[in-house]
Amino acid sequence: MTREPEDVSDTQLRRRALAGGRDAEDVPRLLLERWRIPASRIGRGVLGRRPQEIDEAFVEGSLDALRKLHAVPEGVRTRAWAMGIFRIACLRVRERRPAAATEPEQDRPCEAAGPATEIRKRERSDRLHAAIAALPDEERAVVEHRHLHELEFAAIAQTIGITERTVYNRLGRAFAMLRAAIGDSFDLVP
Q: Which one of 21, 64, 89, 166 is CB 3.0 to 4.6 Å from 60, fit for a cystine?
């Protein structure tokens, strides 16, 4: 397959890949070539000027995005969806960063980094994911569109077929349910 012209969208390429056949063979490589620069920009924004971490996040995000390519919701732009996956990969890489040895004493977290801290973080993450999975379908869909696919409220409303006000209301109900379910504050990707 030759290099695709820029007027062929990522969504058209994704559909070609899902259709299979000989034309689909080079689609993952083409998508990754197109995603490299915007993903690197996201990486610099989240991770700073750490090329090794940016590359690690790109590889991790690429694998996730290609593995989940079939799950892109209809009406969602493939590149925007993929950039959300890359941003989450960057956040995971940042979480794995060791604490700086030269951190001032007052800025150090109360807990020492180590296996126990990692276990607590993992347990908290598992509780959050379980609480999201337990949400009613309507609220869970809004949370997933907002924080997994990073859609704006208007795009969520259009995708689901509801008003923007209903998106706000469902998101507020979902957050209240999540707070009640896990019993502490929680963080979702903005």
A: 89
